[in-house]
Specification:
CATH topology of the largest domain: Rossmann fold
CATH class of the largest domain: Alpha Beta
Number of strands: 11
CATH architecture of the largest domain: 3-Layer(aba) Sandwich
Order of helices and strands: HHEHHEHHEHEHEHEHEHHEHEHEEHHH
Shape: globular
Helix content: 25-40%
Largest sheet: 5 strands, parallel
């Protein structure tokens, strides 16, 4: 008999069985945070919340890279787009993120050269094909995308391109978890850890965080059974008082992660302090270029002066990303802030919490 495992992970009977076990094991109110924006979307899309008892609250965390990109960085992207000698290469999620006064989409409509690409290698190709332009790839993402961007930087160096640049606004996840726990307004009882990021960094990358805080933490996949299995293990750990760091996504994630990808990151980047929307500056949570790759650093080449800018008035994206409130508690949600007229990035990104609530909740 051949088993279709992709169907098994969506099997409604297995999901219902897990939901019953969760209800039986959940004896007190608990707050679980899914760190990854893809988890947030999957939880809504598959109706996971409707299967859980009222004792379990699910919070969305800072796992949407576009959402946690600081306002100052968004404004710098717009500033670069306004230069006649620059072609911006970006993933599509960034196009509609509002800066202080504009967005990449608005700049493109006004005549700026802004190209949506599907990989950093596309930006390298663009730089080779348009030598008259300085091509700037906007590097926004976590450990999932950083290795491919690092590989693109090395390829551009091999091609001896002098018109390829990267704006590194990368973030690393384990440091953000520690920052969350340092916030006295945040109460989290357990973590649903991101699957995609964990494929790269491995479960042991969370070990220092777990050893410091002893919070139940499970890496999970994105299918309904994956998520429910992860929630069940968190509920069981909390009920039994036996916190652990577990890998519930063994078919994709290992303890050591993708060592080759890690080596690429380590060769091109080094840790730096980085600003996160909603969390402030987190030490060692960013990726800056090492000295031998400094020539591709767009911030240095264009002498960009990053200026702190306030969040849009009334926007609660920062609080939503830290788990201290949910979108319906934002005064702008559905009234002023909508997908067609986003005020903050959480309503724009395909992984944004506000976008998930708007699309799937009533």
């Amino acid at each position: 008999m051949t088993i279709n495992f992709s169907e098994a992970y969506r099997n409604p009977e297995i999901a219902q069985h897990l939901a019953h076990r969760i209800k039986a094991a959940s004896t007190r109110p608990i707050r679980l945070m899914e760190v990854c924006g893809t988890h947030t979307m999957a939880i809504f899309r598959h109706g996971i919340r409707s299967l859980l008892p009222e004792t379990i609250s699910l919070l969305s965390g800072p796992g949407c890279p576009v959402c946690v990109t600081a306002q100052a960085d968004i404004d710098a992207f717009v500033e670069l787009a306004r230069r006649d000698d620059v072609a911006i290469a970006t993933f599509g999620d960034l196009m509609r993120v509002p800066g202080s006064g504009s967005s990449l989409q608005k700049e493109s409509a006004a005549g700026a050269d802004v190209r949506v690409v599907y990989s950093p290698m596309d930006a390298v190709t663009l730089a080779r094909e348009t030598p008259q332009k300085k091509v700037v790839f906007l590097g926004v993402g976590f450990e999932t995308t950083a290795p491919t961007i690092g590989a693109a930087v090395m390829m551009a160096q091999q091609f001896e391109l002098d018109n390829f640049f990267v704006y590194s606004a990368h973030k690393t996840v384990p440091q953000a978890l520690a920052a969350l726990m340092a916030n006295p307004d945040v109460r989290i009882d357990g973590f649903i850890l991101p699957g995609h990021v964990s494929v790269i960094i491995g479960t042991e990358a969370y070990r220092p965080f777990f050893d410091a805080h002893k919070l139940p933490s499970v890496v999970t996949g994105f299918e309904p059974v994956d998520i429910l299995q992860g929630i069940l293990r968190l509920v069981e750990m909390l009920a039994q008082g036996t916190p652990a760091l577990e890998n519930g996504y063994g078919r994709a994630v290992s303890s050591e992660g993708n060592v080759q990808a890690q080596q690429v990151m380590a060769q091109v980047f080094e840790p730096c302090d980085a600003p996160w929307r909603g969390l402030g500056v987190i030490p060692g949570s960013g990726l800056a270029f090492r000295g031998e790759f400094a020539a591709v650093d767009a911030v240095v080449h264009f002498d960009l002066q990053l200026t702190e800018t306030p969040e849009p008035k009334g926007c609660a994206c920062g609080d939503i990303l830290s788990g201290t409130c949910v979108p319906p508690q934002c005064a702008l949600f559905r009234k002023v802030c909508t997908p067609m007229n986003p005020v903050g990035p959480c309503m724009v990104s395909s992984e944004g919490t506000c976008a998930a609530y708007y699309r799937y909740s009533t």
